[in-house]
């Protein structure tokens, strides 16, 4: 079996797949590498033969994850690296190495679902939107703060916007908030959804009238009811399988 890891800014997301059928047999997420190793150590019935990893963390932090896994599991860890093209997609950045690896693999993963013009929206700590044309050319994209960052910015840069994280906020609602917590959460949600709506509205200028919209990342459910949006939670892992077969 193979261990797949997506080391993001906040969480290390992981899953274990059966190599032949690609069936997911276990999955989870951890904030710290120690917690990751501890979680994996409880899966005594699972035999992991190797691992592949994508990371947006520093080289030092990524190397720590790789070395700890190699030591704990006795396996080789392959790391996805930047490439000018992969899986039928041409990297559109002027300096291809500067495109975030999780973002790049989500694009590649989406292209494997259905080749053709598409928007790829990844909603995590940051929200990224990328455009790919009918020929697999990455046209570039956009980056803005995710909902957790928007929330944090308001709470850390104002004197009186304060509320507990467990304030019973119904984040899926968009009615005017009747408390500070509701007003902040719903305001941030409206900003996020408006950003995605704007991307979909302008996409025909670059992609034509017919294109797919794929959403992935921890907050993808916040936009899954927007018309035309298709949530595919494992786009990064799909791209990782192409980068590190």
UniProtKB/TrEMBL annotation:
Entry protein name: Type III pantothenate kinase
InterPro entries the UniProt entry points to: ATPase_NBD, Type_III_PanK
Subunit text: Homodimer.
KW Ribosomal protein (keyword) present: no
Binding site for ATP: 6-13, 125
GO biological process per UniProt: coenzyme A biosynthetic process
Catalytic residue positions: 102
Pathways per UniProt: Cofactor biosynthesis; coenzyme A biosynthesis; CoA from (R)-pantothenate: step 1/5
Name of the gene this protein is made from: coaX
Entry EC no(s): 2.7.1.33
EC class: transferase
Keyword annotations: ATP-binding, Coenzyme A biosynthesis, Cytoplasm, Kinase, Metal-binding, Nucleotide-binding, Potassium, Transferase
Bilayer-spanning residue ranges: none
Catalytic activity reported: (R)-pantothenate + ATP = (R)-4'-phosphopantothenate + ADP + H(+)
Residues bound to K(+): 122
């Amino acid at each position: 079996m193979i261990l797949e890891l997506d080391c993001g800014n906040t969480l290390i997301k992981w899953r274990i797949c059966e190599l032949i059928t690609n069936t997911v047999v276990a999955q989870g997420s951890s904030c710290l590498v120690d917690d990751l190793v501890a979680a994996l150590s409880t899966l005594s019935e699972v035999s992991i033969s190797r691992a592949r990893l994508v990371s947006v963390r520093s080289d030092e932090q990524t190397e720590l994850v790789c070395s700890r896994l190699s030591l704990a599991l006795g396996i080789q860890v392959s790391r996805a690296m930047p490439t000018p093209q992969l899986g039928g997609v041409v990297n559109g950045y002027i300096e291809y190495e500067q495109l975030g690896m999780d973002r790049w693999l989500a694009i590649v993963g989406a292209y494997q679902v259905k080749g053709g013009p598409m928007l790829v929206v990844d909603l995590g700590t940051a929200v990224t939107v990328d455009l790919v044309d009918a020929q697999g050319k990455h046209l570039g994209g956009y980056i803005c703060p995710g909902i957790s960052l928007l929330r944090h910015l308001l709470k850390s840069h104002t004197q009186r916007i304060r509320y507990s994280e467990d304030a019973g906020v119904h984040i899926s609602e968009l009615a005017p908030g009747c408390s500070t917590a509701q007003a902040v959460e719903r305001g941030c949600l409206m900003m996020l959804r408006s950003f995605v709506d704007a991307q979909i509205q302008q996409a025909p200028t670059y992609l034509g009238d017919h294109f797919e919209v794929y959403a992935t990342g921890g907050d993808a459910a916040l936009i899954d009811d927007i018309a035309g949006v298709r949530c595919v939670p494992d786009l990064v892992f799909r791209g990782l399988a192409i980068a590190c077969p």
